[in-house]
Amino acid sequence: MSWSRWGVAMMHGLAKLPLPVLRGLGRGLGNLLFVLARPRRKVALRNFELCFPEVPEAQRKAWARESFVVFCQTFLDRSWLWFGSEALVRSRVKLVGATHELEGDTPTIVFAPHFYSMDAGGLALPLSTEREFTSIFATNPDPVLDDWFMTGRQRFGNVKMLNRADGVKPIIQCLRKGGLLYLLPDMDYGKNDSVFVPFFAVPEVATIPSLSRFARLGKAKVVALYNRMTPEGYVAELTPAWEHFPTDDHVADTARMNRELEAAIRAMPAQYYWVHKRFKTRPDGQASLYP
């Protein structure tokens, strides 16, 4: 049995553990990973330094350590999210906020940034609506893991995963039919198609303007879904539709997206995906922000 098959089989077993036990295991693994995964620890600490220069170093380090813990806890939680019963998932994953935004057939983009709990939110929506629900993915090179991720994310509701390599056309077709698009455009995807807009204390950050672009092309409203891990499971909070979005200025729209995300991160700083080199791509002639 390959390592990936063994790992998926292990997740089947972990799904049966009580949640406090599973979370305790994740805390232990997270603290261990914070010590052993030196390159990623340095990335997280640097991200906190860049984004929160006004915060004492000791607090930033505590947030970084807790971020590794939440990373491991949410990864292990995929065991019951993807293998547990529907009743179990419903009892632990709650959708709150402006849920009325899911009613009707108005094309809707759900801005779902990379909080570690994003897969819980990805299940909360199809459990709460019968509307067609799509998301964009990149194929995992390991076919066993790819199947696990795809099957888990499509286990409830009318969900369709769209390959990023297939381009924009199927995404816009889905929106114009009145569908929901679960969009995660907040990582550093390189210089191609990116614009440089502020994010926290960094004035020029490569950010793809797909939220504004898809909203215009699909004639869609935009709501945000901010996913939080709690001791009881997860809370996915849906915001009201953003007013005056999109505009004719995709750069200004993308800067606004980052401001909206900043406010959400400040409410739960340790739960965002800080192990990613968010500031890797720099404008021409500017030095790297990572040592």
The secondary structure category is alpha/beta
Number of DSSP helices?
10
Query: How much helix is in the residues?
Result: 40-55%
Strand content: 15-25%
General shape = globular
Could you characterize the architecture of this molecule?
- The chain contains 10 helices and 9 strands.
- The protein has helices at residues 3-14, 19-36, 38-51, 57-83, 86-92, 118-124, 143-153, 169-176, 210-217, 250-267, and strands at 93-97, 108-111, 133-137, 159-163, 180-183, 195-199, 202-207, 221-230, 233-238.
- Strands 1-9-8-2-5-3-4 form a 7-stranded mixed beta sheet, with helices on both faces. A two-stranded antiparallel ribbon has the order 6-7.
- Strand 8 (221-230) and strand 9 (233-238) form a beta hairpin.
- Helix 2 (19-36) crosses helix 4.
- The longest helix has 27 residues, at 57-83.
- The radius of gyration is 19 Å and the shape is globular.
- The termini are far apart.
Indicate the topology.
Blueprint lengths: L2 H12 L4 H18 L1 H14 L5 H27 L2 H7 E5 L10 E4 L6 H7 L8 E5 L5 H11 L5 E5 L5 H8 L3 E4 L11 E5 L2 E6 L2 H8 L3 E10 L2 E6 L11 H18 L24
Parallel strand pairs: 1-9, 2-5, 2-8, 3-4, 3-5
Antiparallel strand pairs: 6-7, 8-9
Concise structural overview:
This protein is of the alpha/beta class and 291 residues long. The protein has ten helices and nine strands.
